[in-house]
Amino acid sequence: MSSPLLALGKQKLSLRVAQTSVRYAGRQETGGVDPRNEIIRRALYPSNIRNRPSPVGTWRPDVGRRLQRAIPSAQAHETIERAWFLHQRHVRRARAAELQRKFESVKNAMETLRQVAPRLYVEANKEEDPRARSPAEFDLLKKLKGPEKKAVEARIRGLFPRELRIPTDTPPKNGWTYEFTPVARPP
User: Fold this and answer.
1) What is the pTM of this model?
2) Does 14 have pLDDT greater than 90?
């Protein structure tokens, strides 16, 4: 007695997995679907069929042959690679030289500031703890409530103000807030 399961066991099955896309497996095509949407969807999300090049360039079966045709020998490949590394080294050295030039320029400017205005030089180079608060700021924080207190606590000296709105291409729907006044921090 031969069962269908035994017949399957004797069959030589290919090890190749079915290469149709599972993305479209459960979908039923309806008559009311716009074909333009279907074309756009298939162009943006190509199927996983591996016997042709993908439109986005993630899989190309002929890349080995094309490389062999473009670069026929290992020696040519190594020469191209060495030339590329040489180019990268030149770019790296040019960037380093530009950074060094900028650093020297800033250093000269600071030295000139030190000679011309020593008080401004000291003020520009003063190290300040951004978390430190003066007694006047503590008194102000005790008086403030709500968003004003949060704005003072969130603002760190020397950093870009967090309460500033992000620039946009269009104005807000509710218009301009004419009553807004920033919280004045004590010096």
Assistant:
1) 0.41
2) no
